[in-house]
Design brief:
Elements lengths: L25 H11 L17 E2 L2 E7 L19 E11 L2 E11 L8 E10 L6 E5 L7 E3 L16 E8 L6 E7 L14 E7 L9 E4 L9 E8 L4 E9 L6 E8 L9 E2 L6 E9 L2 E10 L5 E9 L10 E4 L2 H4 L5 E8 L10 E7 L5 E7 L8 E3 L8 E10 H10 L5 H4 L2
Antiparallel strand pairs: 1-2, 2-3, 3-4, 5-6, 5-24, 6-7, 8-9, 9-10, 10-11, 12-13, 13-14, 14-15, 16-17, 17-18, 18-19, 20-21, 21-22, 22-23
Length: 425
Amino acid sequence: MRKQFYIIALSFCIIFFSLPAFAQTDESIVKLAAAELTIVNAAAVYGNLTLPTNINGATVIWSSGNKKIISSSGEVTRPKKSNAHVILHATITKGTATAYRDITVNVVKAFKKAEDQAYLFVHFTFSEEKIHFSLSKGNTALDWQELNNGNPVFISNIGTTGLRDPFIIRSPEGDKFYLMATDLKWFKGEKGPDRKRYIQVWESHDLVNWSAQRDVLVAPPNVQNTYAPEAAWDNSIGAYVVFWTSKLDSNKHFTPMYAITRDFVTFSEAKIWQPHEWRIDCTVTKVDDWYYRFTKSIDKAHNNCHDIVEERSKNLRAPRNEWETVDYCIGAKAGIPETEAPLVFKSNPGDINGDYYYLWMEKWIPNKTYVALRTKSLQYPKWEVVPVNFPDPLPKHGTILPVTAAEAKALAAAYPTIKKSEEKK
């Protein structure tokens, strides 16, 4: 009898399926938020704090253990005699879940600033996109000496590696400085990679010892550039308004924009400051209750004058139509064609040249250089051209900051310039 063998093939069906990811509960969200909650500069508080109000989708409400020093919204009044530790209480909620976190911050005692007796000029040059320092030769706005033997103080290895249009500001408390610059490499056709939305930031307490360079995203996605960042303190919100010029994808105009910060780390969402007009290189100074703004503009109201316009407002963040025009075509009326990059500052008490407001601008015709104007009043300006002994190499688009005698001495020591006559000895 023949034996028959039957092979029965069995088909196995393998079914792949995924289990749902671990679903976060409100309880887990607030617990994680409490663990991740931080306060910028908690170890040494020199000014108002940014207190996060939302983290990982959870809401954060703050209270202060010492409201005389720190308010629940982060405004700081520094103690006069000694540093103070303050506990800030955070209540984190989502839905019905709640978590708590206490963070202790160290508030540095108040600073007593001496009178300004010199000036620091922070700039780049017509030959390289790096940041240079120059110092006035005493209490004079008209005579300058380059620091660091004319070599740059800041060189970038971030982004495009180009640094242009540096701006420096002193905190309202007096003992902190923030330095910003455009991240752009343009000279000699060596335009770097696309860095449309970033600025570069440093900070210091003494103008000599500086933090590491920070690469900071400030502009929205729909911009083609972020040029010439500057800042002004807005006491009505207890924060800095940082402003710059961007060309928006939606139009062909250079449009000034702004964002708000207290620490130059955390910034609000950017907003358009001056829409529907071609405007660049804004700079602002405050006199009493008024902000005075100088901007390079195509002035349609005055024969399309490509020049510096002066405006004023009591609200720094006010829209364009709420600023009062004070003066226009300032360079042209002073006999200086094709100007841009204005900087404005008030002379120090005791400046040997007298009491003035100075407006410096770059001029392009017949040659590239700075030119200086001055007036006794910004409200009723009568600009006059004044000669200046500029530092060498020739400066381009920067900021002038009044400094104390001690700060000037420290700068000269940290970034010395040895004269050629001294080198031969």
